[in-house]
Amino acid sequence: ERIAVCDVNPEPGGDTMKDYGPTILRIFLGIIFVMHSYLLLFVFTPAGTANYMAKVAGLPAPALMAWIVILVHGLGGIMLILGVLTRWAAAANAVIMLGALFLVKLPQGFFMKGVIVDAAAGRANAAGYELELLLLGAAVALILAGGGALAISRD
Questions:
Q1: 123 has which bridge partners?
Q2: 97-120: string of b/e by CB count within 10 Å (b at 16+)?
Q3: What pLDDT digit, counting tens, does each position of 72-110 carry?
Q4: b or e along 32-48 (b: 16 or more beta carbons within 10 Å of the residue's beta carbon)?
């Protein structure tokens, strides 16, 4: 098993760039999750996020769920950016995306209708589930492919 962070000498006929696809995916996905964590923590606030989860998704223990989402997106996003335990960070975020998809967004239809964020009221208006589906697919791709080149850990 290889321990090197980046294969600069692939096997003859190998593709020197194939490990960089997951790298780009994990960095961009990590940025998106970190920014979503920031939005929930500082714009909507944990209390506003919990209120949204209680009213819209009907989740039990909404305050706990809000903090779980904030932490998984924030810490998991940082882990993805750095390439630390990529598969685990992607899996945790995939679970969150499954919840968002099935508990909140599915009834809103596929297409985004224009996201309007009302920070004062701590809510986002109906937008469709295409973004959540894309983020879920990207997370699953990283679960399967791993962190790619330039990851701190190979998992």
A1: 118
A2: bebbbeebbeebeeeeeeeeeeee
A3: 999 999 999 999 999 999 999 999 999 999 998 888 888
A4: bbbebbebbbeebebeb
Q: What are phi and psi of 78, to 5 degrees?
A: -60, -45
Q: How far apart are CA 40 and CA 52, in angstroms?
A: 11
User: Quick one: which of 47, 45, 41, 44 has its CA closest to 63?
Assistant: 47
Q: At 124, give phi and psi (nearest 5°).
A: -120, 135
Whole-model pTM over 0.90? no
HSE, CB side, 13 Å, CA atoms: give it for residue 67: 4
